[in-house]
Amino acid sequence: MQAFTRLDSRAAPLNQTNIDTDQIIPARFLKTVEREGLGKGLFHAFRYDENGAERTDFVLNRPEYKGTSILVAGDNFGCGSSREHAPWALMDFGIRCVIAPSFADIFNNNCFNNGLLPIVLPVDQVNALMDEAKGGNHVFTVDLESQTVTAPSGKSYGFDIDPGRKEKLLKGLDAIGETLQHAGDIDVFESKRAIGQPWLEQA
Amino acid sequence: MSGKTLYDKIWDAHVVAEDGGEAILYIDLHLIHEVTTPQAFAGLRSAGRGVRRPDRTLAVADHNIPTEGQDLGTAGITDPEAKLQLETLGRNTKAAGIEYFGMGDIRNGIVHVVGPEQGRTQPGMTIVCGDSHTSTHGAFGALAHGIGTSEVEHVLATQTLRQKKSKNMRVTFTGAPAPGVGAKDYALAMIGEIGTGGGTGYVIEYAGEAIETLSMEGRMTLCNMTIEGGARAGLVAPDQITADYLRGRPATPKGAAFDMAASYWKTFFTDADARFDREVVINVSKLVPTVTWGTSPEDVIAVTDVVPDPAAIADETRRLSAQKALDYMGLTAGQKITDAKVDVVFIGSCTNSRIEDLREAAGVVQHAFVHGRMVAPHVRAMVVPGSGLVREQAEAEGLDAMFKAAGFEWREPGCSMCLGMNPDKLTPGQRCASTSNRNFEGRQGPGGRTHLMSPAMAAAAAIAGHIADVREFL
Question: Which one of B127, B165, B196 would you mutate to disrupt binding with A, by most A Cβ within 10 Å of its Cβ?
Answer without folding.
Answer: B196
